[in-house]
Amino acid sequence: MAAVLWTAAVAVAVSVTIWAILAFARWWKLWKIINKIPGPPAYPLVGNALQFKPGAVDFFHQASYVIIAPWQRVSPLTRLWLGVTPVAITCSPETAEVLFSSSKHIEKSFVYEFLHPWLGTGLLTSAGDKWKTRRRLITPTFHFKILNDFLHEFHDQSEVMVRKLEEVADTGEEFDIFPFITLCALDIICGTAMGKSLNAQENTDSDYVRAIYRISDLIQVRQKSPWYWSDPIYKSLGPGREFEETLQILHDFTRSVIKERSEQFQKQLESQSQDDLDIVEDPDKPIAIGGRKRLAFLDMLLYASVGETKLSNEDIQEEVDTFMFEGHDTTAAAANWAVFLIGSHPDVQKKVHDEMDRVLSDPDQKPTMDDLREMKYLECCIKEALRLYPSVPFFARTLSEDCVIGGYEVPKGVTAIVPTYNVHRDPNHWPDPEKFDPERFFPENAAGRHPYAYIPFSAGSRNCIGQRFALMEEKTILASIFRRFRIQTMQQRDDLKPLGELILRPESGVRVKLFRRE
């Protein structure tokens, strides 16, 4: 018996040793290939992870200006090691094109896996056939006529925000406008995604409002900390336990809304013909669920769920949660950066005011889709703000096959990151890149620009499906502000200190004084 146990132990030891040797050999081969790419020195096992500063402001500044920017000047590609995991960083539009123009490199990087507990594998995080099916299913929900219907929600919530701003403006004091815009965007996305009145602008202390802000912070910290990557370890620690509690609040809210709307939908099915169920294919038939005047994204998913593509409540929740995540913080951050930049440049603000007076001459006029299209200078301001401060500061892909990027071999399976913030500052494509200049986006100035020099909504087949929605929402919010107020900013750009979290936002908000316009 002892001999048998001894033999088994030896066999296990030999197997483990062989596995370890083969694993090390594969890793060593990868190490030699990756280290041909220029980049900062890395240490065994931990790589560059311990070199990053812990604070979100310091981390983002270090990554953008201390690590990426210096290498960007000498190489189109650089590399980092997060523990034993290599990361290739594309530093130019030319190298970003290799990823975004490919129909093969569409799988999101492992860093997106930390979103799975919240978002599941919805449109943002899914891959392969599931992603293709969901993309095909959801694309019609951003049809022009459905977006036009959302415009009412944009305006109504923007008016609530303006009333709040008028109260503060009348005090003559400076204040942080960031939470006003952010809560407005949250009410908009809740109304358009779920058809639910969250009333975040009136109830800023709700559990859901606090949870949706906190969970992004927790995810970002985990993404950059290899010691938190193991689920069992993370869940046993304080941040992991807080994450689970926060997640429960978000999921309970979404589930309750889906359950309520699904029950209403089942009742409504009994009184509708099959033609009525084609709403997603034919946006001319706006039949909202539960007696509402306007369709929500959730309504359209429920209609789609009885078509050829069957969606469970869990499938629907993935997409609603994804819509909430992608459509809230991103637009809010973009609008806040635009407010600061426009307010910091009186000449630009004067042109925006002139455009508002021309397009929205009636003080009580609700902007139409045609009105938004006429706000051409405001759109240039929004685009330039997104160039300087893209809401998503980086995109990441997992390479599906070996490829050559910028003259360097990058093996299959490696994570490739496109740092939007740095690509948008490439001096080869953006003269005087730190200058805020909306005229860069005048048609005559944008002609001939590299197609991947400006990528705030990603690019290629996995570009942001809701970018028209986002631009419409941001225009509506900003038009509501600038048609009524002159803005005096109280900070310099260096004071804002971008936070390198999931979404790029200023550390101390955007402090302003507002003056009512006559």
UniProtKB/TrEMBL annotation:
<keyword id="KW-0472">Membrane</keyword>
<keyword id="KW-0256">Endoplasmic reticulum</keyword>
<dbReference type="GO" id="GO:0016712">
    <property type="term" value="F:oxidoreductase activity, acting on paired donors, with incorporation or reduction of molecular oxygen, reduced flavin or flavoprotein as one donor, and incorporation of one atom of oxygen"/>
</dbReference>
<feature type="transmembrane region" description="Helical">
    <location>
        <begin position="6"/>
        <end position="28"/>
    </location>
</feature>
<keyword id="KW-0503">Monooxygenase</keyword>
<dbReference type="InterPro" id="IPR017972">
    <property type="entry name" value="Cyt_P450_CS"/>
</dbReference>
<keyword id="KW-0349">Heme</keyword>
<keyword id="KW-1133">Transmembrane helix</keyword>
<feature type="binding site" description="axial binding residue">
    <location>
        <position position="464"/>
    </location>
    <ligand>
        <name>heme</name>
    </ligand>
</feature>
<dbReference type="InterPro" id="IPR050196">
    <property type="entry name" value="Cytochrome_P450_Monoox"/>
</dbReference>
<keyword id="KW-0560">Oxidoreductase</keyword>
<dbReference type="GO" id="GO:0005506">
    <property type="term" value="F:iron ion binding"/>
</dbReference>
<dbReference type="InterPro" id="IPR036396">
    <property type="entry name" value="Cyt_P450_sf"/>
</dbReference>
<protein>
    <recommendedName>
        <fullName>unspecific monooxygenase</fullName>
        <ecNumber>1.14.14.1</ecNumber>
    </recommendedName>
</protein>
<dbReference type="InterPro" id="IPR001128">
    <property type="entry name" value="Cyt_P450"/>
</dbReference>
<keyword id="KW-0479">Metal-binding</keyword>
<dbReference type="InterPro" id="IPR002401">
    <property type="entry name" value="Cyt_P450_E_grp-I"/>
</dbReference>
<comment type="similarity">
    <text>Belongs to the cytochrome P450 family.</text>
</comment>
<dbReference type="Pfam" id="PF00067">
    <property type="entry name" value="p450"/>
</dbReference>
<dbReference type="GO" id="GO:0005789">
    <property type="term" value="C:endoplasmic reticulum membrane"/>
</dbReference>
<dbReference type="GO" id="GO:0020037">
    <property type="term" value="F:heme binding"/>
</dbReference>
<keyword id="KW-0408">Iron</keyword>
<keyword id="KW-0812">Transmembrane</keyword>
